[in-house]
Amino acid sequence: MPRVNNVIQQVSQLNTYEQGKVFEFLKVVLMSNGITNSVNKEITENRFNKGKCCPFCNHNKISKYGKYHGKNGVKQRYKCQNPECRKTFNDFSKSPVSSSKKGIDKWLLYAQCMVNGNLLGNVLK
User: Fold this and answer.
1) Number of domains the chain is built from
2) DSSP secondary structure string for all residues of 55-101
3) Which of 10, 66, 80, 122 is 20 to 30 A away from residue 113, measured at CA?
């Protein structure tokens, strides 16, 4: 709690413009948590909207294959039952974020900062 009190004290010493910037940043960060969950759900729904199938061979027989803790939270793994494929995958396999080292929350925050017109150097911090 001392760190939180320290941050509160430092923010109270900022001028109105700087406090507004801190507020906007916190608003984006706090909102991104809820947005991340809805984006994860939407990706899952879109991936399997026509029935579950393997993203590698499009075979429609897949089975659950455990869960794992990844950068986007706890995710269900699947395994293709096609004897020629037998690959494992999750909801994000073969998607733009599947090979990213950053989670969806970071990408959403980055996109929000870019939409707000923040400079690239400031966004990277």
Assistant:
1) 2
2) TTT--S-EEEEEEEEETTEEEEEEEE--TTT--EE-TTTTSTTTT-S
3) 10
pLDDT at 6: 80
pLDDT tens per residue across span 2-27: 677 787 788 788 888 887 787 777 76
In a domain, 89, yes or no: yes
Asked if pLDDT for residue 76 goes beyond 70, the answer is: yes
Instruction: Note whether 111 and 84 are same-domain residues.
Output: no
Are residue 113 and residue 123 in the same domain, yes or no?
yes
Are residues 105 and 82 part of one domain? no
Question: What's the domain range around 121?
Answer: 95-125
pTM higher than 0.85, yes or no?
no
